[in-house]
Design goal:
Helix content: 55-70%
Order of helices and strands: HHHHHHHHEHHEE
Distance between the termini: 97 Å
Strand content: 5-15%
CATH class of one domain: Mainly Alpha
CATH topology of one domain: Serine Threonine Protein Phosphatase 5, Tetratricopeptide repeat
Oligomer: single chain
Largest sheet: 3 strands, antiparallel
Number of helices: 10
Length: 308
Amino acid sequence: MLRTSVLSLCVVGLSLSVLPPARAAEPSATEVQAAYDSAMEDYQAGRFSEAARGFERAYAMQPDAALLWNIGRSWEQAGELTKARDRYTEFLSHEAVNAELRVKVADALVRVGGKIQARQDAKTQEERIRQLRKEITEAEADRNAELMKKLQGELDAQRGAEQPSATAKPVASEPAPASTTLSQTYEPQKSRPSVWSWVLLGTGVAALATGAGMLVDAKVKRDSVHSAIDNARAGFVTDMSLTDAEGLESDANRNAAIGVATLATGGALAVTGLVVALVTRGRTVEQGVSFGAQPRDGGAMFSASGRF
């Protein structure tokens, strides 16, 4: 009886050892779509770090190579250049992808690589600060608030490291300059008309003047031809030959046609310039200009940032 029990136990153990391991349930298409939609919503709202993580989750559920473009672009917008470069590179390792998207990813990889190289080339603190300011300006032009905040934090950290330490000994007997930063912000309420309005208006006025001059010249030449014809009919001797008369008539017709076209173009440009001036005048400026002054050894460092 004991032998039979041991044999039964061995058979049960053998049967358990050959059972296949339990597999996690495959994500449904609805779950993948929900992850993608959530990530896209974050991207459109400017939450690029959250968007990148959301696209990463969607890619983990369904490894579609096209999602690597979304992931790389989101990391790039979030300022995570190394992660963006890695995802762009991974995308290009796939062959069965859209050719147009491959070109976009290749361009993005060159762009990100250039930014990474520029940061690596910035050896001194002054060069790093200059590079950060350049990237902040680019982020401001793209209206990327998340990246601007991140880069501004890095810039503040660089500026903080620039201040002399409390234990440092002064070079001279004079006290070291204060480390506080003075700043003043000017917030203009209304903007001037766009410079393009003046360019269009000035070009239009010049074209109108040119067209009017060509029409006047055409009229003078035609009057000369008609006067010569009238004198010839009246029996007077004229110095104008038939060839000269035909040449003047041809010049008059050409100048008249050019004059009319120039007048029409000048009028259109002038009207467009006036419209642009009316539309852009008085528009509220979204962001003003910030001026700063930071004391330095033997002087001060002045800075200005914003839209000019």
